[in-house]
Amino acid sequence: MKVTNGRRSQGGQALSEFLVASLVLVPLFLLLPMIGKYQDISHATLMASRYVAFDAMVRNDSVNSWKPEAQVAQEVRRRFFGDSKTPIKTDDTGGDFTADRNMLWVGPSGKPLIEKFDRDVLVTFGPDKGTAHVNGFTSAHDHQAFQGRSRFDLPARGIYNANVTVSLANLPSGLKFIEPFDTLNLTVSRTTAVLLDPWAGRSPSAVQGKLDNILINPAVGLAPMDPVLDLAVQALDGRLLTLGDIRGPKLGKLQFWADVVQPDRLR
Fold it and tell me: Which residue, among 85, 104, 98, 102, has the nearest Cα to 37 in the 3D structure?
């Protein structure tokens, strides 16, 4: 009887430990899908900020014109936070109804985690979360523009910041295991920073024209020394009288780096 009582006692203790562990682990397993949804929204927010930054690279006042900010915001809401199966259409605006939502981004009660697109998904620009494209730039860390920028026609606006912020709804209150997700007020924000104003020549001749400027390429001033250097090199090589093919360095001449397509490739 003592042995039997001991076995019963051990079995009861194991059952009690299992129930106690279940009180901790079961809520955790129930919340795992929610954590996955939060991560999915975080990834979508990151991709949305990259989209805004890329759009600014091809549509800005140094190339053509900025895309209207309201249009960018609507595209982000529709393409990154709506139904992934919805086709992309120009000037298409999503609404706060089921057909335009991502059906996976809901809470345990079926309530959407993004309640209102216009209010909860925001696109801003700049380190201070400004609302205008022109205010989206951050100056260099020393707040000094590159001194030689005027020679290269480089603007001094700095780095462009594209921000996307998503505010998520809290989970239903009244359930102990959901805490603190019922009062979390979670906000996901991602920023992509790019340089919108690099210098690039519009054609090979434009690039060569910049390189021929002695202020940009001081080595251009050494080009007249080429004949003298050719003779010196030939003399050192013992070919001064024969005038062989050997030549000195082409100081200040960068034509051999020109981006030229060979005639046989143009057919």
Answer: 104
Query: pLDDT, tens digit, for every residue of 104-140?
Result: 898 888 899 999 999 999 999 988 777 778 778 887 6
pLDDT of residue 247: 62
* 62 vs 64: CA distance, rounded Å: 6
Round to whole Å and give the CA distance between 217 and 212. Answer: 7
Structure tokens that stand for 85 in this block: 């199966």
Q: What is the pTM of this model?
A: 0.66
CA dihedral 170, 176, 177, 178 (to 10 degrees): 0
Please answer whether residues 260 and 204 qualify as being in contact, where contact means their C-beta atoms are separated by less than 8 angstroms.
yes
Q: Enumerate the β-bridge partners of residue 103.
A: none
- Alpha-carbon gap, residue 134 to 197, rounded angstroms: 13
**Residue type at 138 in one-letter notation:** T
Is residue 252's pLDDT more than 80? no
Distances (CA, A) of 63 to 57, 152, 201, 211: 9, 16, 13, 23
| Listed residue (62, 63, 67) closest to 125, CA to CA | 67
pLDDT of residue 20: 61
Rounded CA separation 220/251 (Å): 7
Of 120, 126, 198, 122, nearest in space to 162 by CA: 126
